[in-house]
């Protein structure tokens, strides 16, 4: 009976993984590597499966083994970059991404590089990378969202709102709506901020910051009952926010005085 080739095993392992059977995929790869220890395809696939399961260190070892055999494989470098970024090895990730760009420049790779620069906190380069993507692909909502956040951090709230509203027009995550809420709140559009924070909470029910900020803007609008409801939920999600809540309640124009800390905690459900 013919022994299965590495290609056969890769096909079977890929089918297993795509069917929701990562353990079977890993087992097949390991069996193949027991017979052909240096096969780059098997190392690559096993690295991908391990990475999908959160096994970062072994995934990195296997993708390195794959690249040692096929140093110009763009897909392997891209996976290696994602693994390195997960370990916060941003220099390593950027090195792999630059290699991919040299081998096979594609839009996806430039987005990965922008994400990596962003996560590394290299803001000037990240900003330029996102701007380049947004200029070429103006419908890239991730670029709009990131540029909006960076504009807000720079204090350019009007530009931030324009970009974040564009990003929110798609299937935006809670983070985009939260950032939009921040920008609107800073321009004292409390009603618009409340709408954005509610959307963030709808998408992420445990979003403590959005819940706390919703309380602040509702208080600014004079809706003290709504504000107290939001504060109670924020306190439940994050008890350490009590000091911020107490400060907001006593310092805003529409607030309440609490002479007894225990009474305030009880009113918040604590």
Automatic annotation (TrEMBL):
Record-linked Gene3D superfamilies: Tetratricopeptide repeat domain
InterPro entries, sorted: CellSynth/LPSAsmb/PSIAsmb, TPR-like_helical_dom_sf, TPR_rpt
Presence of keyword Iron-sulfur: no
PROSITE patterns the record matches: TPR, TPR_REGION
Entry keywords, A to Z: Repeat, TPR repeat
Placement of TPR repeats on the sequence: 174-207, 208-241
Stored SMART domains: TPR
PANTHER family for this protein: LIPOPOLYSACCHARIDE ASSEMBLY PROTEIN B, TPR REPEAT-CONTAINING PROTEIN PA4667
UniProt protein name: Tfp pilus assembly protein PilF
Species whose genome carries this gene: Bradyrhizobium lablabi
């Amino acid at each position: 009976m013919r022994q299965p080739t590495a290609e056969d095993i890769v096909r079977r392992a890929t089918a297993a993984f795509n069917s929701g059977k990562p353990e079977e995929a890993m087992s097949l790869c390991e069996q193949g590597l027991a017979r052909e220890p240096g096969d780059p395809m098997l190392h690559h696939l096993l690295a991908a499966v391990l990475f999908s399961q959160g096994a970062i260190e072994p995934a990195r070892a296997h993708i390195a083994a794959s690249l040692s055999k096929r140093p110009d494989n763009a897909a392997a470098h891209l996976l290696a970059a994602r693994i390195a970024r997960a370990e916060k090895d941003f220099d390593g990730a950027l090195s792999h991404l630059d290699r991919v760009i040299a081998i096979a420049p594609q839009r996806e790779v430039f987005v990965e590089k922008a994400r990596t620069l962003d996560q590394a906190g290299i803001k000037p380069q990240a900003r330029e990378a996102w701007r380049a993507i947004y200029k070429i692909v103006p419908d890239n909502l991730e670029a709009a969202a990131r540029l909006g956040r960076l504009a807000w951090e720079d204090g350019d709230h009007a530009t931030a709102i324009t970009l974040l509203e564009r990003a929110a027009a798609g299937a935006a995550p809670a983070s985009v709506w939260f950032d939009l809420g921040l920008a609107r709140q800073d321009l004292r559009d409390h009603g618009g901020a409340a709408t954005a924070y509610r959307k963030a909470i709808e998408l992420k029910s445990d979003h403590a910051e959005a819940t706390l900020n919703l309380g602040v803007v509702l208080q600014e609008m004079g809706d003290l009952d709504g504000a107290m409801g939001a504060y109670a939920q924020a306190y439940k999600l994050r008890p350490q926010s009590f000091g911020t809540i107490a400060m907001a309640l006593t310092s805003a124009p529409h607030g309440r005085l609490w002479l007894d800390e225990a009474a305030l905690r009880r009113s918040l459900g604590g």
